[in-house]
Amino acid sequence: MIDAATQALVLQRYPMLRELPAAQLADLLADAALLRMPAGSLMFDENQPCRGFPLLLSGSVRIVKAVPSGRELHLYQVRPGDSCILTSSCLLGHAPYHARGTAEHDLELVVLPPAAFKRLMAQLESFREHVFSNFSQRLTDLMALVSAVAFQKLDQRLAALLVARESPLRTTHQALADELGSVREIVSRLLKNFADQGWLRLGREQIEVLDAAALARSVAL
């Protein structure tokens, strides 16, 4: 049951739904389910069917592509107000998932059944534009990821990641390795090399960038 407070949050995160007539919005949410999932929960896995379209209200979801060896490549994140392009493509193409989604933080989300998602796509232009705008942005990001993986060395990709984030970066070496599709030992060695050159300072689950210009130059080499 979607209560009034949750409905208000849905409309805050996904304002295009305010364009629906009250009766149509009520019908849409009557078929929806409110879920709460703790950090670390598996939202979906490869080859699973898609059960519905999530409207994320709080938390974030990490989408990764895994290989049999256990290594993972970070593809993108889904945050409140976003749409998951993998879920959209699965629903539109009647196909199973081709990657894995895991809760990075505690999640609260409203899940629309597939039929409700398809009605929204057909009837509400602003919702359709929202979904396809996310497709466009994610495709651009994924093309950049493919280019980086294919043409950049790991130290360049790590430097680019550090330059792009706000300093100090509060994370672990393992988390960086997961995001880069590498292993912790290699990432730790590269970070130590950067630190030895005076480009950054390493702390407990914290990385402080001291010379962003040097890191940026290493990306361009």
Summarize it.
With 221 residues, the protein is an alpha+beta fold. The protein has helices at residues 4-13, 22-30, 85-93, 114-123, 125-151, 154-164, 173-180, 184-196, 212-220; strands at residues 33-37, 42-44, 53-58, 61-66, 72-78, 100-103, 107-112, 200-203, 206-209.
Can you offer a commentary on this structure?
- With 221 residues, the chain is α+β, with helices and mostly antiparallel strands.
- 48% of the residues lie in helices and 20% in strands.
- The protein is built from nine helices and nine strands.
- The strands form three sheets. The chain has a four-stranded antiparallel beta sheet. It has a three-stranded antiparallel beta sheet with strand order 1-7-3. Strands 8-9 form a two-stranded antiparallel sheet.
- Strand 8 and strand 9 form a beta hairpin.
- Helix 4 packs across helix 5, helix 6 runs antiparallel to helix 9 and helix 7 packs across helix 8.
- The longest helix has 27 residues.
- The protein is elongated and about 65 Å long.
- The mean pLDDT is 90.
What's the end-to-end separation, in Å? 55 Å
Strand order of the largest sheet: 2-6-4-5
Q: Write down the Rg.
A: 20 Å
Low-confidence stretches: none
Q: What kind of sheet is the major sheet?
A: 4 strands, antiparallel
Q: What average pLDDT do the residues reach?
A: 90
The backbone outline, from C-alpha atoms, is elongated
* H and E string: HHEEEEEHEEHHHHHEEH
Q: What is the percent of helical residues?
A: 40-55%
Counting DSSP H or I runs of 4 or more residues, the number of helices is: 9
Number of β-strand runs: 9
Q: Oligomeric form of this entry?
A: single chain
SS class: alpha+beta
Beta-strand share of residues: 15-25%
